[in-house]
TrEMBL record:
Family: Belongs to the AlaDH/PNT family.
Protein name as annotated: Alanine dehydrogenase
Entry's Gene Ontology BP terms: lysine biosynthetic process via aminoadipic acid
Domain of life of the native organism: Bacteria
A GO molecular-function descriptor: saccharopine dehydrogenase (NAD+, L-lysine-forming) activity
SUPFAM superfamilies: Formate/glycerate dehydrogenase catalytic domain-like
This protein's GO CC annotations: cytoplasm
Lineage: Bacteria, Pseudomonadati, Bacteroidota, Chitinophagia, Chitinophagales
Alphabetical keyword list: NAD, Oxidoreductase
Residue span, Alanine dehydrogenase/pyridine nucleotide transhydrogenase N-terminal domain: 5-137
Annotated Pfam families: AlaDh_PNT_N
């Protein structure tokens, strides 16, 4: 008998998401009689202890008998149980300084760590993540911010709605002005943004039309890697080559700056990838963007005026176009930036259900059985030792 435990999130601010919903736990117990599930009691989870109990799942304060522990965010060191197998987003693979002590403690305690972020299909595409709901919430927040700035329509915060279905109902009858929206990216975040574009009835147009025409209805243009970057000397775009040598590429987004009211950014960014625009561009009179929903949300990343995170309650701040200072939102001299690092927490029940489905479909069967290459490749620590793919972390892990 293997025992799975759902841990209480210990990071502050507390994350309200969970890896398996009560219904998914119930399904797993029915289909895997060799598995037992314990849920660590938690006051802040988006599914209450009572909902798990009603589904027939044991809720307890003692999860020390579990073999496999499922969480979402980093686990505080005092909560790490020796010798266990943990799955969560550890944010250690890029040597993030704030998680160095946690990784070190996990090594000392002989823990096995499998990181959700490292679970990939053979072609390198991520298997599970929350990006889709980040795109949903981020796109809604971007539209909400533009409505507040212009006073042309009104939208409420996502978290004020019970769930995604209730949110969708609020879009019936919403009439947006004739705005132009640029959407960047091709991953899960971008798919979430596009879903909202369709729900609020914004029409997709091709890049050439977007750049050359005005419209009597709201439109968006979807810009993927190929539309945004070009090799500086050959003028070509090759996805693999771009991923390996991004510093050899130029960004083509500048031409969209005079034609865009709202930018919804969902493109992947890393240190050497050119930014979408620069600070100097914001000072030009033709810079038309009034609202930026930076869902990718890298401070100082693809959006230079991302000055750090807002919160779920106050997701928007203004940025002065010339002094570069933070302003109150909706200021006449500022561009509004919506940047929040935990957007899916506004729709935690839907985001958790989606996450759990992916976990059940692609990972749990192998995890509870004989393992898989996919799981091996996402195992950062095995019984406290760095595995071969993560050997590059040995300096980081040693301190
Ligand atoms: N604000 C939030 O709450 C929140 C939540 C989830 C994700 N995000 C961020 O949004 C961004 C996009 O997330 P996603 O879920 O859409 O990711 P994804 O993994 O679904 O898609 C990423 C896209 O980037 C491309 N890509 C992958 N590696 C690349 C590389 N080295 N160089 C260039 N492109 C590369 C992929 O081809 C894919 O199209 C990420 O930076 C992620 O951290 C933010």
């Amino acid at each position: 008998m293997l025992t799975i435990g759902l841990i209480r999130e210990g990071k502050t601010p507390t994350d309200n998401r969970v890896a398996l919903t009560p219904a998914q736990c119930k399904w797993l117990l029915k289909n895997r009689p060799d598995v037992h599930i314990l849920v660590e009691s938690s006051p802040g989870r988006c599914f209450s202890d009572e909902e798990y109990r009603r589904a027939g799942i044991t809720v307890t304060d003692d999860i020390s008998s579990c073999d496999i522990l499922l969480g979402i965010k980093e686990v505080p060191v005092q909560q790490l149980l020796p010798g266990k197998t943990y799955l969560f987003f550890s944010h250690t693979r890029k040597k993030q300084p704030h998680n160095q002590a946690m990784l070190h403690t996990m090594m000392d305690r002989g823990i096995t760590l499998i990181d959700y972020e490292c679970l990939e299909h053979e072609d390198g595409q991520r298997i599970i993540g929350f990006g889709f709901f980040a795109g949903i919430v981020g796109a809604h927040n971007g539209l909400m911010a533009y409505g507040k700035r212009t006073g042309q329509y009104q939208l409420e915060h996502v978290y004020k709605h019970k769930d995604y279905r209730a949110l969708i109902h609020t879009y019936f009858g919403l009439k947006l002005p004739n705005i132009k929206i640029a959407v960047t990216g091709s991953g899960r975040v971008a798919h979430g943004i596009l879903e909202i574009m369709n729900l609020v009835d914004v029409q997709e147009v091709e890049p050439e039309e977007y750049l050359q025409r005005s419209f009597t209805y709201p439109v968006y243009v979807h810009l993927k890697g190929r539309d945004l970057y070009r090799h500086a000397t050959t003028g070509d775009y090759n996805r693999e080559h771009f991923h390996e040598h991004p510093n050899e590429y130029q960004c083509l987004f500048r031409q969209y700056l005079p034609h865009t009211d709202v930018l919804m950014n969902g493109i992947y960014w890393a240190q050497d990838i050119p930014r979408l625009f620069e600070w100097e561009d914001m000072q030009r009179p033709e810079f038309a963007i009034q609202t930026i929903a930076d869902i990718t949300d890298d401070t100082g990343g693809s959006i230079p005026c991302n000055l750090g995170d807002g919160t779920i309650d106050n997701p928007v701040y203004g940025v002065h176009r010339t002094t570069r200072e933070k302003l109150t939102p909706y200021h006449k001299d500022g561009v509004d930036v919506m940047a929040v690092g935990n957007l899916p927490n506004e729709l935690p029940r839907d985001a958790s259900r989606y996450f759990g489905e992916q976990l059940l479909k692609h990972i749990l069967h192998d995890l509870l059985g004989n393992g898989s290459v996919t799981i091996d490749r996402a195992t950062i620590l095995k019984n406290g030792q760095l595995t071969a793919p993560f050997d590059y972390l040995h300096h980081y892990a040693a301190h």
